[in-house]
Amino acid sequence: MIERCGEAIVLRVWPFQEADLLVSLFTREQGRVKGVARHAMRSRRRFGGALEPMTYVRATYAERPKQELVRLDAFEILSSPLSRPIDYARTAALQFVAEVVEEALPEQAPEDAVFRLVLAVLDQIQVGKVWMPVTYFSLWMSKLMGWMPELGHCVVCGLDLRGGTVWYSATSDGVTCEDDRRPGSVAVSAASVGEAVRIFRGTVGELAKEDWPKGRAADLRRFAVETLERHLERRLVSARALGRA
Ligand SMILES: [Zn+2]
User: Fold this and answer.
1) Conformation bin of residue 174: beta by default, left when phi > 0, alpha when psi is -120 to 50
2) CATH superfamily of 2-83
3) Which class in CATH covers the domain with range 88-243?
4) What GO biological process terms are annotated to this protein in UniProt (predicted)?
5) What is the block-wise mean pLDDT of the chain (245 residues), using blocks of 10 residues?
6) Which residues pair with 12 in a beta bridge?
7) Ligand 1 centroid to 175 CA: how many Å?
8) How far is the CA of 153 from the centre of ligand 1 (A)?
């Protein structure tokens, strides 16, 4: 048995046998792991309020030989999403980050850059301020996974699209100029492409100082979410919930 202790983010929790819970955890050291929290429904001492999705914890757990699920022993809360006000949009945004990480990362593969991204956006997803961190996370997650197309040139004719509108389709790679757009293509405005450039250059903390209502760069956010969905080969339930916010 190997005992481990390290930083982790709680992604999802399911009821398991009796009073046990099955927990999907994104650990800094080992990437995504799944474990059983024995008697977690009863043992408030070991897990307390730490099983809320997107809680940042120091997790103590044990890997058992020939067992796929680790044994979760205790969580110490480093930062809880419940320590600040919560509403529908913030809940949906937190669920969105959890769902994307859960779906995008394989188990047992460390992803330190993704871990740092998640921590940074978590801190900025606050009541009345969810749209920028969600857009930032979606674009950066695509980039870190290697799914982000180059936005500067038409993938068909090579035309320089910098400073202009780009077109993308839900079924094919890359972005195009208007002439080469595929059936059903959707546009991302020049202004929104400019926001993407700023997002890839700036930190989420700096950008959070700006006013980002839902309508700002909404076409860019849709593009980023659809890029994630295309590579995950599924619709993100939380993205739909977020859209209703
Ligand atoms: Zn073209």
Assistant:
1) left
2) Nucleic acid-binding proteins (2.40.50.140)
3) mainly alpha
4) DNA recombination; double-strand break repair
5) 95 90 96 92 77 95 91 94 95 97 95 97 96 98 96 96 94 94 96 97 95 96 96 94 91
6) 24
7) 9
8) 8
